[in-house]
Write a structure and sequence with these properties.
The structure holds two protein chains of two kinds.
Chain A: H1 3-29, E1 32-37, H2 45-64, E2 73-78, H3 84-97, E3 102-105, H4 109-121, E4 126-128, E5 141-143, H5 152-163, E6 167-173, H6 176-191, E7 199-204, H7 212-221, E8 228-233, H8 239-248, E9 258-260, H9 265-268, E10 280-283, H10 292-305, H11 314-333, H12 338-344, E11 349-351, E12 357-359, E13 367-368, E14 371-375, E15 381-386, E16 391-392, E17 406-409, E18 415-419, E19 424-425
Parallel strand pairs in A: 1-2, 1-3, 3-4, 4-5, 6-7, 6-8, 8-9, 9-10
Antiparallel strand pairs in A: 10-14, 11-12, 13-16, 14-15, 17-18, 18-19
Chain B: H1 5-25, H2 27-33, H3 37-43, H4 45-64, H5 67-77, H6 85-93, E1 97-100, E2 107-113, E3 116-120, E4 127-130, E5 136-138, H7 143-157, H8 163-174, H9 179-188, H10 195-209, H11 215-225, H12 231-240, H13 254-303, H14 311-328, H15 333-358, H16 367-389, E6 405-409, E7 412-415, H17 416-438, H18 440-450, H19 452-457, H20 462-485, H21 494-509, H22 514-535, H23 537-554
Antiparallel strand pairs in B: 1-2, 1-5, 2-3, 3-4, 6-7
Helix pairs in contact in B: 4-5, 5-7, 6-7, 7-8, 8-10, 9-10, 10-11, 11-13, 12-13, 13-17, 13-20, 13-21, 13-22, 14-15, 14-16, 14-20, 14-21, 15-20, 17-18, 17-20, 18-20, 21-22, 22-23
Classes of the chains: A alpha/beta, B mainly alpha.
Chain lengths: 430, 570
């Protein structure tokens, strides 16, 4: 080999390297954009910040595994600031300006309702991770939280059959989720033969802090000699003074248990739980569930957030499931194109964190186990009851007059609001 | 059961030998904890083997069985009388019952004494000090099980030394009167010497006697119950007055019905009286919270005329101060709260002075700009707290003496924390009143607020007074925060929840008048609590706002109009 040849070779090698490098840079620019639409300030920041971190952690893990379709995932985080109209604006920003391929986001039902028209207009893809009141199924939304039949109804069944509850207090914050859930529960209880006088319904404003008279009333209602339970859809911050008042007025869980649908490990971490021992929550996941998947998830969460004391909760698991379902759908479709991913999703299965399988159903809801947990002194839950297998999420409640005959099916019927009696699709998904 | 019986047996033998050894060694110490059992065991080992084996099996099922199994074991254990059985049940109720991770038949009660963990074997009473509960698993319970356990422990406690424990035990058994419990009570009645406990026993037995087929027994039972107000008595007596499906009375005897009616009427009358008192108390305590939240604003807005939208955040700072104090003094929760009061005054007061000197003083006489600027400050403070303490709520623990009830009778009880809040509010109000009316600072504050130019002419340094007044109002807001931290969430949004209420109270009471704030807050609190049961919490709030708007239309100056020129000069 002569000198010139050597130089030539070096030069070509350099060229090859630089082309490779150049290609790599191009590759890095061509990423899959994942939108995160969770409030990082305002009232809901308390719950939603954690979910933002969860999505970022999942993205990081996926990227460590090599991303999707050979591309890296790139998070786009926006802050809708607990302001419902702002949710719609931020959603538009994500879809139009950032052109994200998928969005994980929203917590309250009102924020979901606010972004729904945007996602349908711009054909976006939203994964919604929180338990909600149902009565909705949009082509562009996948609901990875619990529908009422995956949380509220089984919880009431447990209280009725296992605890022997005969008198019911339905207490909630005054907004759409508690109102609809309580409507469903009331209809359900009545169908089980509970009389009107054995149901007490009470609504309180957001952030209600003076619970004296309501707890006294619950106490009076519960002193009629029949086992009484409180089904609580009280939201967020109002729970702390509510539980404090219960313990101050010495209403113990053994006398009048409270089963809550919005209180989880995260909320309990801000409460002195020693007086709450025995009160219940119904969820599809608890941090205390003992499975290898859950252990691994908790471990990576603690590593990611750099705080071994942080808890995990149900909506985090919903994002975990939702994210994995989406990733699988993208792999299956071979593209991030929204229409193809939507078509690929129904029928896909991923393991959940409680040892079961989450399957995406044609109505865009998933299968979930239902767990009832009693609060422990350390702010964790003891699972005291669970369903035998996974329960299929039902978008339209079977216990409400307006929605009994309605089904959602995006595979066969291509409709989120199909009336089985008139055999028509209303075309409106909510 | 999942584990093989053989293993069970060997485990039992070794334990049996071990416990025998223990007995021989610690025989003397044993004697006072378990007076009769060791004698029996030493005398008749052959007969004892079976029951012990049975107990171990029972404990194993109690430790790791299903909730239904556990329930069965509790029902069976409560009938047994070996020495460790109460310790097992009470330990299980308290979450202090553990079992060996690999042998569920080895069940222990853990007790912490002077920082040392002691592992007690309930079967032989032997105690071992252990370093940590490693290798032990807590025996899980649920609500229904705990309720059964409470009843089971109560059966043992009926013969306790302390009358209070006996009384509580009887009250517990009364909740679920079965023939077993009744038999126990009948046995106990002639032995009981304490009159209060006797009375409890008689009431419990009378409740049972209402089921008797003899009309005379039922009448006698009603006599015993005639002075009682308790719910279970009411419910039971009420049932005597019920009618069956055909409209015939359930109770055949007319005399019994008449007597029952009298008892019911009496209880209902008491209930309505004490119900009214209860609502009044709720109203006063809610009013106290309103006054506490508003009283600082009564100074900054009322006396100085500054529309301080950051007032709520000054309250929040006070609440966080009590959280920090508890972090600093983790072993003295009560003391931390007491110390938090002056600390919160300083923190919020200094922040107030900073706000006044830094922003507000440039904006005197421009209310709209003050409003916007202080609103900006409020957002700033919220985000500051969010960055320092995270957006999650923080826990402030209520000290022991602030939790629980003061039970005045069966239908009326006062929660201690609310009671202290009322007292605390009155103290703060009195102090503030003294400061404003009896100190030189108070005199200057009043002088400046009434006529700034004149006060300055008399040599009062008005900006210094402005700063101090604002600091005083802010400091009082901080004190309110300490009180609120015990009632509600300590989080970045704490202040927002109270800002509207505070303005409402000050405007309603009359701007610039402390008494107006007191009377206004109390009126709103009581009115709200009387409305709430009838129209619901949401509507009550709306009605209050409507009422205040209408009231202000009629009386622009509020309840107690300020005399003089207050407000005009700013």
């Amino acid at each position: 080999m002569n000198k010139q040849g050597f130089i030539k070779q070096v030069a070509s090698a350099c060229l090859a390297v630089s082309t490779l490098f150049g290609a790599a840079t191009v590759q890095a620019e061509d990423t899959i954009k994942v939108g995160v639409l969770h409030s990082l300030s305002g009232t809901m920041a308390i719950s939603e910040t954690t979910l933002k971190d969860t999505v970022l952690m999942l993205i990081e893990e996926q990227n460590r595994k090599g991303g999707l379709l050979g591309k890296k995932l790139e998070p786009v985080v926006v802050d809708p600031a607990s302001n419902w109209p702002l949710f719609a604006e931020r959603a538009r920003e994500l879809l139009q300006r950032h052109e994200v391929d998928v969005v994980f986001g929203c917590w309250t039902s009102v924020s979901r309702k606010s972004v729904l028209p945007v996602f349908e207009e711009l054909n976006g893809l939203l994964f919604y991770p929180v338990q909600y009141e149902g009565e909705e199924s949009s082509r562009n939304v996948f609901y990875t939280g619990a529908a009422p039949n995956q949380q509220a109804i089984p919880a009431v069944d447990y209280l009725m059959n296992d605890v022997g509850v005969e008198r019911w207090v339905l207490a909630g914050t005054d907004y759409v989720y508690p109102r609809t859930t309580n409507r469903i529960l009331e209809a359900y209880l009545k169908s089980k033969g509970v009389k009107d006088e054995d149901i007490m319904i009470n609504y309180t404003p957001f952030g209600h802090s003076d619970w004296q008279s309501i707890v006294a009333e619950i106490k009076r209602f519960g002193s009629a000699g029949k086992q009484t339970a409180v089904v609580s859809t009280i939201n967020g911050d109002a729970n702390v003074p509510f539980y404090n008042e219960l313990s101050n007025q010495q209403v113990s869980a053994e006398d009048i248990p409270v089963v809550a649908f919005s209180v989880g490990e995260e909320e309990l971490s801000g409460i002195d739980t020693s007086n709450l021992v025995g009160h219940l929550s119904a969820w599809n996941y608890f941090m205390s569930v003992d499975t290898p998947e859950n252990e691994a998830f908790i471990k990576s969460w603690h590593t990611y957030i750099k705080d071994p004391k942080r808890v995990t909760n149900d909506p985090m698991e919903a994002h975990y499931v939702g994210f994995n379902l989406w990733a699988q759908a993208v792999e299956k479709a071979g593209t991030t194109d929204v229409d193809k991913v939507i078509d690929a999703l129904p029928g896909l299965e991923v393991p959940n964190l409680t040892g079961g399988v989450a399957r995406m159903l044609p109505n865009h809801h998933i299968t979930k186990p239902v767990l009832i947990g009693e609060i422990r002194e350390d702010g964790q839950y003891d699972v005291v009851w669970e369903t035998d297998g996974e329960v299929e999420g039902d978008a339209w409640s079977d216990f409400l007059d307006g929605s009994k005959n309605i089904v959602a099916d995006w595979v066969e019927l291509k409709c989120g609001n199909y009336n089985t009696e008139t055999k028509t699709c209303s075309g409106q998904n909510f | 059961m999942a584990y093989p019986a053989v293993r069970h047996r060997t485990g039992w033998y070794s334990l049996w030998l071990l416990s025998l050894l223990c007995l021989l060694i610690t025989g003397g110490a044993q004697a006072h904890t378990t007076p009769d059992e060791p004698v029996v065991m030493a005398d008749d080992t052959a007969v004892m083997m079976d029951p012990l084996q049975q107990r171990r099996e029972q404990l194993a099922s109690l430790a790791t069985g299903s909730f239904a199994d556990k329930r069965r074991q509790v029902n069976s254990l409560q009938q047994q009388s070996w020495p460790g059985v109460r310790a097992v049940l009470a330990g299980m109720l308290a979450g202090a019952l553990f079992h060996d991770d690999d042998d569920p038949a080895n069940v222990y009660v853990l007790r912490e004494q002077d920082g040392v963990l002691i592992r007690i074997n309930p079967l032989d009473g032997s105690e071992v000090e252990i370093a940590s509960p490693q290798g032990l698993k807590e025996v899980r319970t649920n609500n229904q099980l705990r309720r059964a356990l409470r009843g089971a422990v109560a059966r043992f406690d009926m013969a306790d030394e302390s009358p209070a424990v006996r009384k509580a035990a009887i009250a517990e058994l009364r909740r679920d009167l079965d023939s077993d419990a009744v038999a126990l009570m009948r046995e106990r009645l002639p032995l009981e010497e304490h009159s209060g406990v006797r009375n409890e026993l008689e009431v419990a037995l009378a409740l049972h006697d209402l089921d008797s087929t003899e009309a005379a027994t039922r009448l006698a039972a009603l006599d015993v119950l005639s002075g009682e107000l308790a719910n279970d008595v009411y419910n039971r007596v009420q049932r005597l007055l019920a009618t069956d499906a055909d409209g015939l009375p359930v109770e055949p005897d007319g005399r019994v019905r008449a007597q029952a009616q009298r008892a019911i009427d009496r209880i209902e009358q008491r209930r309505s009286i004490f119900g009214g008192l209860e609502t009044l108390f709720f109203g006063l305590s809610f009013g106290s919270v309103l006054v506490l939240a508003a009283i600082g604003l009564a100074i900054t807005f009322g006396v100085m005329g500054v529309i301080n939208m950051a007032h709520g955040e000054l309250i929040m700072l006070g609440a966080y101060t009590s959280y920090v104090m508890q972090l600093l003094l983790p072993d003295h929760i009560g003391l931390a709260i007491v110390l938090a009061v002056p600390a919160a005054f300083l923190v919020s007061g200094l922040m107030g002075i900073l706000i006044e000197r830094g922003v507000v003083r440039f904006l005197y006489g421009r209310p709209l700009e003050t409003l916007l600027a202080t609103f900006g400050i409020s957002l700033l403070l919220q985000q500051l707290v969010r960055s320092i303490f995270s957006p999650l709520n923080r826990t402030v623990q209520a000290p022991e003496w602030m939790s629980g009830l003061w039970r005045i009778n069966d239908v009326f009880a006062i929660t201690w924390n609310r009671f202290y809040i009322i007292i605390f509010m009155l103290l703060v109000f009195a102090l503030l009143w003294l400061v404003l009316n009896r100190t030189s600072l108070g005199l200057k504050v009043r002088a400046v607020s009434q006529n700034r130019a004149m006060a300055r002419a008399m040599g009062v340094r008005s900006d210094r007074v402005d700063a101090l007044t604002f600091g005083l109002g802010s400091g009082v807001a901080g004190i309110a925060g300490v009180a609120l931290s015990l009632l509600t969430n300590v989080g970045p949004n704490l202040g927002q929840a109270y800002i509207i209420d505070s303005f409402m109270v000050v405007v309603f009471g009359g701007v610039g008048n402390l008494w107006g704030t007191l009377v206004g807050g109390m009126t709103l609190g009581v009115a709200n609590k009387f409305l709430e049961p009838h129209v619901g919490a949401v509507m009550a709030k709306i009605l209050m706002l409507v009422f205040i708007i209408l009231f202000i239309q009629r009386r622009k100056q509020g309840l107690f109009p300020q005399k003089g020129r207050a407000g005009e000069d700013h």
